[in-house]
Amino acid sequence: MKSAALLFLYSLKRARTLVITTGLLLAALQLVLIFVAGELHSSGAFDQLSALLPPFARELLGPSFAVVMSFGGIVCLGYFELAVMGALIALAVTLATTPASEVETGFMDLILARPLARHWIITRAIALTTLVTAFLLGLMVAGTWAGLEMFAPKGVQWPSPRLINSLAGNLGTLTLSWSGVAMAIGAASSRRSVAGGATGLLALGTFLLDYVARLWRPAEKIAWLSPFRYYNPFELIMGNPLPINNQVVLGTIAAAGFAAAYVLFARRDISH
Amino acid sequence: MAPISIRGLTKRYGNVQAVNNLSLEVAQGEILGFLGLNGAGKTTTIRILLDLLRPNSGTAFILGHDCQTDGLRARLNIGYLPAEMGIYSDLTGREVLDLLAGLSGHVVDGSRRGELQERLEFPSSDLRRRLREYSTGMKRKLGLIQAFQSDPLLLILDEPTEGLDPLMQESFNKLLVDAKQRGRTVFMSSHVLSEVDRVCDRIALVRKGELVLLSNVEELRKVAARPVRVLFDEDVPVTANLPPGSEVIETNPRSWSLKVKGPLGPLLRAIATLPVRDIEIAEAKLEDVILKYYRDGAGDLHQ
């Protein structure tokens, strides 16, 4: 246990620069978004933008458009902006594939030549990914409230803490689900690039599947396969509660990935 | 209880037989040289001992504990040096040593580490540098320090002198001798036959995954051919009556170069009547025997 804790701290130390930098950038993005939202609100740009949009386009985009094209909507944009989701998932995948990287470099030989059970390698990666994801989302939420305090125009309605927490929580489980997938692939792989690349392609494929299914009805039949299906920020922004089913599905994907990682890593040969 | 006991170990990669029915015991306090060409199965065997690889059949025990079913206890008192030190280059030498000591669960005696540093000429200032600034030799020294620092009961060393200069090889040999004197056991793979000749008590030679030779070094040396050079005062033709075990390597009118297996008496008797000026007898080289096994595989050692 002491050895496992030491390995966890070592892994955390190695990742700290990347994690802190990413966290600060994501928090800074919240500040920028809120500043921009405040400017747009003060200049009445939201109303102008809505008016510019033709009715058919407004109908196509649905009621969520009106919600997003508001001060509160822009404030929440940071929780479903593609680059933010990509950064969070990429970092989670990087950390989840730490075991594959350690096998690749040969460091795993030195670790496992010690009296340390293999399951601690995976437990360490799970703890690392979960902690870092929580830390990043925590910084984003802190950035949101700090931004609102600093840049929100007077009289404008702030998004509720429940909404921000729901968005962050749902984004967190989505991120963890991908870290589960990456960990399962990484536990059987001897190359981080292979594990990361395979997970990245899978993420891209399922993201596109979800995207296409939202526009093309026949694709809906298989859209349930995409983890992105279970993260619907627009529903949350429109005031709907956080769907527990979605959280359960994403949590199950993460748990299944972690469980598979334990089994695969316990059974595999460590060779690089 | 043998520190290492391997019974019928077999490991296959698809159709490739990496280790085939290998059985071997290493006694406490001995230094066993584990030899073989590249791909012979040395590293695979070591990795099975460390439970990094899982055998298809057979068992391996370290200090009485099954490497697969009781791996944690088996690895409790091991110092391991891999053939390549896979360490992240952004760590300092000290961080590496502290981390690996911590993962071992042992408290490393500072004076022990200091002594190792001194003997391997590794100043503390180098421990403060990041590994990306290390040369190959420095990384190897660091690897040796991490393997020896907790003074483990068993040292498993994979190509330990690879990248060390001759002076450091000498220091390493002394470390091995010291470890042996303190009752520690050493299981080391090596390509450097002269090193094995100097420090090992026994050698085990594997070829295509099979153990083809397991012998005491002294015994092996006895059956190895000794180079003998006979110098004459006048021209002498090569006699056809050289005793069995004497092989002519080169002849000149006033000198013969021979290789002689076994006792020298018969040769001395055969040349007693010749005008011998001098005889130069060199020490038998283990390499000659081992190289034969590398080439030919198992055979009668005494032929």
Can you tell me about this structure?
The complex is a heterodimer of chains A (272) and B (303). Chain A is mainly alpha-helical and 272 residues long. Chain A has one domain (2-19, 79-143, 155-267). Chain A is built from 14 helices and no strands. In chain A, helix 1 (2-42) packs antiparallel against helix 5 (71-77), helix 1 packs antiparallel against helix 6 and helix 1 (2-42) runs parallel beside helix 9. Chain A is globular and about 65 Å long. Chain A starts with a helix and ends in a 5-residue tail after the last helix. Chain B has 303 residues and is α/β, with parallel strands linked by helices. Chain B has 11 helices and 14 strands. In chain B, the strands form 3 sheets. In chain B, strands 6-7-8-3-9-10 form a 6-stranded mixed sheet, with helices on both faces. In chain B, strands 2-1-4-5 form a 4-stranded antiparallel sheet. In chain B, strands 12-13-11-14 form a 4-stranded antiparallel sheet, with no helix packed on it. In chain B, a hairpin with a 2-residue loop joins strand 1 and strand 2. Chain B is globular. Chain B starts with a strand and ends in a 7-residue tail after the last helix. The mean pLDDT of chain B is 89. Chain A binds chain B through residues 2-3, 6-7, 10, 14, 102, 105-117, 267, 269-272, and chain B through 47, 50-54, 71-73, 75-76, 78, 80, 82, 84-88, 90, 99-100, 102-105, 146, 156.
